[in-house]
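Re: the request from the purification team.
They wanted to know what the chain is likely to look like in 3D before they choose a buffer screen. I agreed to run a prediction and write the result into the notebook, where they can find it.
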Amino acid sequence: MKHKIFNYAAGFFTLALITTSCVSDDALTQLDPNNDSVDKFWKTDQDALEGINATYSSLLTDGTYMRSTPLLLDLKGDDTRSNSPWGAMYNVGRFNSNVTDAAIYGWCYETCYQGIFRANQVLTNVPKINFTDAELKNRILGQAYFLRGLYLFHMVNMFKNVPVPTEIAVYYPQKTQEEGWAQVITDFKAAADLLPTTYANIPGIDAGQKGRATKGAALGYLGKAYLFTKDFTNAKATFKQVIDSGVYSLVSNYRDNFTDTNENNSESLFEVQFSREAGGVALGWGGIPASNWGKTSARAITYGPRAFGWTDVQPTWTLFNEYHDELTTSGTVDPRLDATMFYNKPGTKLYGQDFATFYAANPGDLNDLFCRKYENSDGAYANEFDWRSGINERLLRYADVLLMYAECLNETGDTPGAYTYIQMVRDRVGLPNLSTAKPGLSQAAMRDQIGHERFLEFPLEGHRFDDIRRWGWLQDPAKLAWLKTRDVEYASYAPGREYFPIPQLDMDNNPGMVQNPSY
């Protein structure tokens, strides 16, 4: 059951930290290391653990993975479209975020820097604590480096030239994107050196606590940072460490990566922990944390099918059609299609309702596409209107490591070697052997093939636009023209709009900040 994930010694998050469903109400009231009680804090092993838990909690509110960050990562890709009535959301995928309205992107910016600040508190104060458990100290510091690296990864990746705080101060100067990536890499390296492979067999007050960052998570993100900076040699070596560790494997059922039934599974390197059972029932919109906040996600209602959620995000017909490009070895359509979206297919049910019957009176909806990934749509819930999804957000999967490793092989001259790792991902869904279907691909052709493989494996997971941007497709006239045929939202792309604007509040309050081009 899901609540077992939260069976932690002091709770994974409390006071904006996830807690177990079996702790008492009194246990939910703890010192907040960010308030005036800080002088009384940072004294014991338990204080250190609660400090790092508070750093995780910045992943849970509206600015990050409760809602905003998935939207920012998804909506610019050619796998998604939005007709949201909310302009701040509608305009993300149209590359038209408003400098004077920082809704959504500004909330992400603020919350990631909150997480970085909390990580810096841990890194500043934990070394001063006289620990009774020296290994616990290393694990907590490793998690702080990992989380700072993760929050900063998002900032550098989405906002380009940003402050790079590594200590507690009042002002942080804006840095170049290269300086930002260098710090991300440094943090993930430090995390990988300090973190355990698993928490399953360790002693200490964090023993057995699933959801905490591990060595594999740090290495996976380190490899990703190298890849995003085109350091293919180091990326290749780092991904190979993950593969050779023997810790990770693909789950047999692709859909198990997007429901609450098989969370923290063998394919997951890192995921954000949500639960309907932990905490209270109030929504964590942000600000000063309160003990009555729930630890649930609003992704499901935001992306939910018409009449079951707000339908602010939908799959594109380009994605639907591309799933039909290649049949499985048994002659069926790629099963990832049905795991990713709802459409008018005979027998399709959503939230216990027959699709064709439910939408029969509305031809527009009957012939439309709706998101299925990360939806509580298998019959246990009538809809998503309670805003309380407990499905964990999978940030990094082993399938991603395999395909990124294949990309590194291709970019370092071993195109034949890339076939093996691509096929591992294709085998799960029964696709033919690529080396037989498309033998002898050139390096350029393999790049396009990897683009296709990633498009079908990771839609609605926040990866597609990252890929488009880092591959330079927006600067390639032919590729940009191709993207415009796939997603009409690309018609409004302008150079520089691949990044979000620096929020005006930070521009006003942080001397010397320079706005991103085109804003």
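For the purification team: The CA atoms of residues 416 and 440 lie 7 Å apart.
Please add any questions underneath this entry.
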